[in-house]
Amino acid sequence: MCTHFLHRAWTKLRGPRLGPEGSANLEAHQAKFQSSEERRLVESQIGDKRKLQRVLQWVSGVLIVLSLIYMSNSRLGHRLPRAVQDTAFMILVSLPFLLTGISWWSFVRAWRNDQGMAVWRIWISLCGCVALSIALLIPFFTIVFTLDWSTTAIWCLVASGMALFTGILAAKPLRFPLFFGGLVMAGLIVVIPMAVL
Predict the structure, then answer these.
(1) Whose CB has fewer CB within 10 Å in the chain, the N or C terminal residue?
(2) Distance of CA 192 to CAs 140, 146, 197, Å?
(3) Distance separating alpha carbons of residues 113 and 111, to the nearest angstrom
(4) Domain span including residue 135
(5) Is residue 179 one of the residues assigned to a domain?
């Protein structure tokens, strides 16, 4: 009687014996649990990366808008030190080149990955990339072929406006470079005098 009681207590402490099928099921369950934990970890890292990228985009957008405001307002611009003015000007001039490259790179990635994006957003993104590239090339064509700037500036503003508008409707990875690329390009055309170009 005492031996039977001890045997039952030992069985409860040790747990039930698993056969080959039970062991296989237990290992499969453990592997599934481990894979789900790894998936959650990866998803959380991707989410944190996207949040950081979104914050950086907002900060960059605010700085771009402030730089354009300072460049367009001579009173505000002259209050800043000369080194700050020159740095802001060089950054604004180089931004269209950078944002155009980012937009084409993002478009190629979106086209290859095709992460459930609507087809019309992909085509609008392509139109935005082409419009931003045209807006970037028009000033160079004006200088090289000595075209009439009063006419080409209008076309440059139209192309920049198209890039800005398509940035609102484009695929998510291309919204920032297209919108702010068109905004900066249009702002530079309005702010910079023809003598600089």
Answers:
(1) N
(2) 14, 18, 8
(3) 6
(4) 41-191
(5) yes
Which pLDDT tens digit goes with each residue over 54-78?
Answer: 777 777 777 777 777 776 665 555 6
Rounded-to-integer distance, Cα 123 and Cα 126, Å: 5
CB contact at 8 A, 109 and 173: yes
Q: Does residue 5 lie within any of the structural domains?
A: no
Q: Residue written as tokens 């959650």? A: 40
The residues, ordered by sequence, that sit 6+ positions from 82 with a Cβ below 8 Å of its Cβ are none
Total domains present in the chain: 1
DSSP string, 149-193: HHHHHHHHHHHHHHHHHHHHHS-HHHHHHHHHHHHHHHHHHHHS-
**How many whole angstroms separate alpha carbon 162 and alpha carbon 158?**
6
Domain membership flag for residue 7: no
The pLDDT of residue 136 is above 80: yes
- Is it the case that residue 157 has pLDDT exceeding 70? yes
CB of 194 within 8 A of CB of 144?
no
Average pLDDT over residues 133-158: 89
> What tens digit of pLDDT does each residue of 16-64 get?
554 555 555 545 555 555 566 666 665 566 556 667 777 777 777 777 7
- Rounded Cα distance between 138 and 18, Å, is 76
In-domain check, residue 4: no
